[in-house]
Amino acid sequence: MARHRSRYLIRHHLSRRPVIRARLVALALAGVSLAACSASSGSGGAAASTYPSGSYGAPVTVTLLAHDSFAVSKSLLTAFERRTGITVKVVTGGDAGEVVNKAVLTAGNPEGDVLFGVDNTLLTRALQGGVFERYVSPEDADLRPELKDQTGGGYVTPIDYGDVCVDADTGWFAKHHLSVPQTLADLTRPAYRGLLVAENPATSSPGLAFLLATVARYGDPGWLTYWKALKANGLTVVNSWDDAYNGEFSAAGKGTHPLVVSYGTDPAAAIVFAPSPKPSTPDIAVMDDSCFRQVEYAGVLAGTKHVAAARAVVDWLLSPAVQADVPGSMFVLPARAGVAIPEVFQKWTARPANPLSVPPAEITANRSSWIETWTEAIGQ
């Protein structure tokens, strides 16, 4: 897979976001100790009772393994350390697939104490590999209702979620007097010939998510028939999100494709990162019918020598303060219910009523064969 996390939103816009690039580089520096806190309590339990001060020994360092896109405001990290005496050392290691693969290889003798970033496309692989020890966070009581049964049997805690979707350059469609497509089926119509660019599922996380979206919609082997129709209708395939969005998507620059496989938060990002004066509406629309839901988890690594402190870090990731930080830091949505979301995300992030999904066990059983079949039939 490409060096992008499976459900990552910020990193896909780094070429336009020097401030975020600097933040992520700082977070990724090996050996840098970071810390933070839940500044307030939620209905699922006060911060003080979840990770009481002075109960972990002194000093204690928890190593948090994460994909390259992990980001939390430093003030939160600092406050957590001051309250608990726990130092959090963040170690990043590529995209979610790379991080999970390494965790499977080191299961039982982990290189860290907590893993963040495994998602629903990779979860069963991690569970079958014995990566996590069972832990049900007291903060789980405050998960969004639709996420409460997505804990891998009590081995992981949902931290955030988002959607991979087809995005449209609304300015291009207006200029060409063509309606924006609304459904996956529309993308095979002659009117949209040659307009879509998608990522290779063998090399790209969003590419894999889009492949899974078609499996969810058309079944197996119907998804392959659909992809063959896309190919016949002039589909362009590239290897990475960066190639697709920054290289081929017309709304991002000089690209010639007004349709791209990207993220449901892109309209909000278009507003957030636009120069002042900010536009009142984004130049990107999301095709809700195409959206595949990704959920991202954290868990305590089996074999950690700091079980209590590792559990406290997982609790903290689901705490109200960190959850409120999630949209602005990682351009995903908080897994905790009742968390205030910035207005720009409320207004412009795609919220499909019925996002596409595939059960994790089905993904694990078929992922390799689906990618191989896609490569043989569609790969370019």
Describe this structure in words.
- The chain has 380 residues and is α/β, with parallel strands linked by helices.
- The protein has two domains: 11-161 and 294-347, Periplasmic binding protein-like II (D-Maltodextrin-Binding Protein, domain 2); 163-292 and 351-377, D-Maltodextrin-Binding Protein, domain 2 (3-Layer(aba) Sandwich), CATH 3.40.190.10.
- The chain is built from 14 helices and ten strands.
- It is 35% helix and 17% strand.
- Strands 1, 2, 3, 4, 5, 6, 7, 8, 9 and 10 form a ten-stranded mixed β-sheet that branches.
- It has helices spanning 18-28, 47-50, 74-84, 96-105, 123-128, 170-175, 205-218, 222-232, 241-248, 266-272, 307-317, 320-330, 343-348, 360-377; strands spanning 33-34, 60-66, 86-92, 114-119, 157-169, 196-199, 236-238, 259-263, 284-300, 333-334.
